[in-house]
Amino acid sequence: MLKYGILGLLNYGDMTGYEIREAFNSSLNYFWNAQTSQIYRELNELEKNGWIVKNNVVQVGKPNKNVCTITSSGKAEFLRWLLEDNIHCESRSPLLMKIFFMGELPKENTLDFFKKLNTSSTVNEKMLDSTDNSINFYKQYVPDEKCSIFWQMTADFGKRYNKMLAEWSQNCIDILNNEG
Questions:
Q1: Which of 25, 28, 82, 101 has the fewest CB atoms within 10 Å, i.e. the most exposed one?
Q2: Contact 51, 77 (CB under 8 A)
Q3: Where are the beta strands (DSSP E) in the chain?
């Protein structure tokens, strides 16, 4: 999936690996985690597949940089992926697997777990509030500003998900506290 995130970003315009990482940090990172090493490894694979080309740009007083450009076959692969009729909401959840078996732990541990989950969800929800500014900033750099509508939809999902998770974890805390 990381490859499609990178192809999607490059579809908006040419970028260096660093710029891709920065774009990830301010957008996709809210729902798809990628380390810098993973991005660079994936860029090499994308180049091997002929889906991107790297152009070495010589700089004076700075190290040279590779600017990545999506190729026509890369764009075709990206669009093929977007058009896949494979709408699949992930049913695997390490979080829920862990919670399912938490009855094996002392109450203090489970309360601590849900309190941390509640705090984390609340913090994530607040962090997503800053995505509106990022969306407004980045939409000026894409050829078609309608893309930002879909960015907003994605950010809205993240906000709602974290709000639900915070409310749900608080409910779990209340259940455990009321348990005899």
A1: 101
A2: yes
A3: 15-16, 52-57, 65-70
Of residues 129 and 43, more confidence is placed in 43
DSSP structural state of residue 148: H
The pTM for the full model equals 0.73
pLDDT tens digits along 121-132: 999 888 888 888
pLDDT of the residue at 162: 92
144 pLDDT exceeds 90? no
Rounded to whole angstroms, how far apart are CA atoms 14 and 19?
9
Residue 104 lies inside a defined structural domain of this protein: yes
Q: Is residue 88 part of a domain?
A: no
Q: Which of 39, 61, 83 is the last residue of a domain?
A: 83
120 located within any domain: yes
Rounded distance between C-alpha atoms, residue 82 and residue 85, angstroms: 8
3-state secondary structure 102-141: HHHCCHHHHHHHHHHHHHHHHHHHHHHCCHHHHHHHHHHH
Does 7 fall in a domain? yes
Structure tokens at 27: 């957008």
For residues 100 and 71, membership in a common domain is answered with no
Query: Where a domain ends, among 60, 83, 106?
Result: 83
> Is 112's pLDDT higher than 70?
yes
